[in-house]
Each structure stands twice: as structure tokens, then as C-alpha cells.
Amino acid sequence: MGCVQSQPIAQGGDGAGLPDEVLRKVEVLFFDCDDTLYQNDWATAELLKASIERYTVEELNLTPDYAYELYLEHGTALRGLLKKEHLSNSKVEHFLQDVHNVSLEDIKPNPVLRQMILSLGHKRRWVFTASIREHAERCLERIGIADLFEGIIDCRSVGLVTKHDPIAFVIAMEMANVTDPSTCLFFDDSTKNMETGKQMGWNTCLVGTKARGTGEHIVCPSADYKVDKLTDIIEAMPVLFEDARMPDPEAELVEAVSGAVVSTDVVDLDDPEGEEETGEMKVPSVSEGGKNVVVVLGGPGSGKGTQCARIVDDFDFVHLSAGDLLREEMRKPESEYGAIIEEAMKEGKLVDPDLTMNLIIQAFDEHDTDNFLVDGCPRDMSNYESWNALIEAPGIARVIGVLYYACDEQVLVDRILARAAASAPGEERPDDNVETAKKRFKTFRDLTLPIVELYRDKGLVHSIDAAGTVDEVYDETKQVMVELVNQS
Ligand code: ADP
Ligand code: C5P
Ligand code: MG
To answer: Which family does it belong to (predicted)?
Structure first.
């Protein structure tokens, strides 16, 4: 690959980003399919390569490495086979169908990506692939995003030219009915495709920054952005998600995914006249903002879980602890994230926010209620951005208040050790020890407190002294909760 070098070189582009005004002009998003909309360490790419090799050997009686040589020389094996007259035009369809007939079981559902795409507001979305439509459709089906695109531009659409031929880009624009290249944004894992995209005046984002085989850092001056995986654009291009809150013709899609009841009608079905003043606590009615969330933050061991357990006895709220959801996932024998979560917890570090948000979105769907206490999230800037892009922007939920439990670190250490001593067999936490506690305090001070401040600036924070007894702390908590449910 021309762009791969052993040392990253600082050049223009190469993931340096674009001014916000440029990104705001983007109207049409073009996504490559293989190794961009999904990534699986090139497992599917290997199957496709082997499949092409099998075809050339078995059907065309050519030598095993020949197909790859043709690919290198002509951009695609198919073009080489046609040019060298190993394949006639009448056999092209047979070739395309046959070689793409590979197992796609290595492509996994990606609900976070789905949510992210839905959060892209009005921007139009196309799949632009060098493979065939049927293969792309099967991949999209596997990922769970088949309904999210206006159309697919495939190798047949572009007359079988290689994808990095400028003609392919011209046809892609025609098909997507867009005339101004500066309104196009292109996501692809190929540096060659980035180069042509840039030449054509498109905005570009390289997906995947490590070269296949060598793992070397990919240098690509033609890439305006470079991300390891597609969902990283939430942090890399927050501007793209700005218009997600505006009325969207696809609102019903967001609704279907989130399960949120989106209605401006605030009538309480049990009390249609709104007469009942005493007895049960009033809860906020769900409106455009989806679920109502009270975020619960505080140092490790400050009593977030303990207070939430009390709140749910008195108020119509469900408690979701991000840490509990992660521990639950960690303990599932079939989970592919178990080891990653355990490692992060032991180090007092935070896990990939996409995973945490995914677990929270799933948990929202599992409860038939509109009011949630979300304990321990968002907990740093990347949690916060991911929360805003995946949960707030598409209207799944909105934060109506933040309970912040303030407490001295020495008190927290004592509580953490008491919790460790009391834990049931099999329920032990990997992080309730003095050594990890120190790391968690640092994470809390350095990363979580700034988030409390961000919410404070929005007027959402209610600070509660967490040093008293459980009852004392709860008295204060209850007052704040009454205020919160009455104000909404
Ligand atoms: P967090 O969820 O914030 O990490 P927990 O609610 O699990 O904290 O509380 C940590 C430990 O401290 C638990 O063992 C809990 O029983 C205990 N605890 C919680 N609140 C208090 C309190 N106000 N006074 C004394 N111990 C407390
Ligand atoms: O909130 P709790 O103390 O249960 O969190 C335990 C651990 O779970 C954290 O130290 C961190 O490793 C992980 N976590 C996370 N992101 C969150 C919440 C918790 O990575 N938003
Ligand atoms: Mg807790």
C-alpha cells in the first residue's frame, strides 16, 4: 500500500481534521462496506480473497497466486481477468455471485453503530462499495443497519471500474443526486480510495489506522480524519451530530430503536385530570426528551448504589448502575468483553464508552418505565460525548438532574473495604482494594469531577453531603428528588 510507512509523518491532512464550518456543510455521507461499516480483523476479507483464488484455480485453471497478482496490477482481480481474457463478459455475473458467496458469521450485530447512524440527523447516507450489492446487503443485515441507507453504489453501478477510479466517484455523486463535492463525506478503510475522494473534492475519513498484516500506523495525507473504528467519529466529529435534535423525517426510526414514547401529550393516564396531589410521588411526564434521567455521581464508595436503592422504594424510578451493568457483562462466560472490562476495573480505568452506552441503551429497553437513575455515568469526557451523541441527541433520554455525593476520601476507603468484606462469594469486585481504590480516586478527581462541573454550569447539579449515615444522606436525597420530579 503506497501510503503505509513505518514512521508517521506529519503532513497536511493525515487526520488533522476540518474546521467545523466545513463539516457543517456536509449533506451526504458515503460509507464503504467491508472493513469500514464492520471490522473483524479482516476475517471476511480473507474469506473473499480465498474465494477469488478458488474461483480462478477451479473454474479458470489458473495458478493460486495469480488472482492476487491481477488485483495488484489492475485494481481488481475481475478487471485483470477480463483484460487478460481469462473471463468473458458473459461470465462476469457468475464470477461476482460465486466469489461473494462466503460465510458472514464473523460480522456481528453492532447496535451502537446503528444508534450512531440514526443520530446523524438529516444527513443522507449511501453505501459505496467495491463489492456487489447483494454482498453489501447481507453485511448490513448482519450488522443490523440494512434499513438506514438511501441506496448502495456497487461495482456494477460504476461499470466495474476500480473504486479508486474518479469515474466511480462521479457516478456515486450522480446516484446520490449531489452536485457539490464539498458536501460529501466519505468513510473508507483504503488509502487509495481516500486519495481519489480527496482529488474529487470530497471530505474524507480513513477508518482503521493500523495496516493489515504489519499493524503499522497508516499515514494518509488524503484523509481529513482518521479513526480506529467508525463509532469514534462521535468524538472526532461532534459537529456531525448537531442537528439530530431537529424534527427528522426518520423520527419513527429513532423511536423504534429507542423504544422511547415520543409524545408531547403529558397527561398521566392514571390521573387524567391531574387531581391526585398526595400519596404517590409525581413523576415527570415523558415528552420529546424520551426517558427522564437523574445522573448519580460521586466518588467510589460514596453511597450512590445505597441511595439509589432507597430512592426506588419511594419514587417511580429504575436504578441502572453503569458499574453493575459492566460487571454483569464481565461475568457472562460468552461475553467477548469480559477480560477487557476486568482489566479496566482492576486499573481503576474506564472502559470504552461505546460499550457502556450500549449496555445502558439495552437496559433502558428492558424496563417498562420512563424514569431512570443512571449511576456512575457519564463519568469522563468520552463518556459524556458518547452519552450526548448516542442517548441525548437521538432523544432516547435527557438528563433532568444530577445527584452529586460529596465525600472525604478516607471515609470512602473505609466504605470500600467494608463493602469488600461483606461481598458474597462470586460477587467480589475486582476493584475493591486499597491499591485500586487510589487509582479510582485519581480517575474520579481528574476525569469525573470536570463532568460534574459541566453539569453544574447547566444548572443541573444537586450536591449532597455523603458523609452522614445512610438515613441522613437519604433525607437530603429525598428532598432533591421531590424537587426534581415536581419541576419537570
Ligand atoms: P457506590 O455505589 O457509590 O460505590 P455503595 O452504595 O456501594 O457506593 O456504598 C459503598 C459501601 O459503603 C457499601 O458497603 C455501603 O453499604 C456503605 N455505605 C453506603 N452509604 C453509607 C453511609 N452513608 N454510611 C456508611 N456506609 C455507607
Ligand atoms: O460505579 P462503579 O464503582 O461500580 O464502577 C466500577 C468500575 O466500572 C469503574 O472503576 C470503571 O472501571 C467501570 N466503569 C466505567 N465507565 C462507567 C462506569 C463504570 O468504565 N461509566
Ligand atoms: Mg455502585
So the answer is: Belongs to the adenylate kinase family.
What is the mean pLDDT, run by run of 10 residues, along the chain of 488 residues?
34 83 96 98 96 95 92 91 94 96 94 88 94 98 96 96 96 97 98 97 98 94 97 91 54 32 26 36 47 97 98 97 97 92 95 93 94 97 91 90 97 95 91 94 96 96 97 98 91
Label residues 160-178 b or e (16+ Cβ within 10 Å = b).
Answer: bbbbbbeebbebbbebbeb
Task: Assess whether the C-beta atom of 351 lies below 6 angstroms from ligand 2.
Answer: yes
Residue whose Cα lies nearest atom 7 of ligand 1: it is 305
The answer on 134 and 58 residing in a single domain is no
Residue 86 DSSP code = S
Ligand 2 pocket check for 344: Cβ under 6 Å: yes
Which atom of ligand 2 approaches the CA of 436 most closely?
10
To test the pocket of ligand 1, the residue of 295, 296, 304, 306 to mutate (highest count of ligand atoms within 8 Å of its CB) is 306
465 lies in which domain range?
A: 291-487
**In ligand 2, which atom is closest to the CA atom of 351?**
20
- Residue 341 CA: which ligand 2 atom is closest? 12
Residue 191 and residue 76 share a domain? no
pLDDT at res. 278: 36
What atom in ligand 2 is closest to the CA of residue 349? 12
Kindly give the distance from the C-alpha atom of residue 426 to the centroid of ligand 2, in angstroms, as a whole number.
18
Q: How far is the CA of 473 from the centre of ligand 1 (A)?
A: 11
CATH number of the domain encompassing residue 222 = 3.40.50.1000
CB distance 29 to 124 below 8 Å: yes
Annotate 6-68 with DSSP letters as a single string.
SS----SSTT----HHHHHT--EEEE-IIIIIS-STTHHHHHHHHHHHHHHHHTT---TTHHH
Query: Is the distance from CB of 307 to CB of 478 less than 8 angstroms?
Result: no
pTM above 0.70, yes or no: no
Residue 237, CA atoms < 13 Å, CB-side half-sphere: 34
At residue 286, the pLDDT reads 39
One domain, residues 235 and 331: no
Residue 447: CB partners within 8 Å, gap ≥ 6? 350, 379, 380, 381
Closest of 241, 289, 288 to residue 400, by C-alpha: 289
Task: Assess if residue 277 is contained within a domain.
Answer: no
Q: What is the CATH number of the domain that holds 399?
A: 3.40.50.300
Count of the separate structural domains present in the chain: 3
Task: Identify the residue whose C-alpha is closest to ligand 2 atom 3.
Answer: 300
Pocket of ligand 2, candidates 324, 342, 350, 433: which has the most ligand atoms within 8 Å of its Cβ, to mutate?
Answer: 350
Q: Residue holding cell 495458478?
A: 63
Do residue 341 and residue 483 come from a single domain? yes
Q: Cα(87) to centroid of ligand 3, in Å?
A: 64
Whether residue 122 sits in one domain with residue 88: no
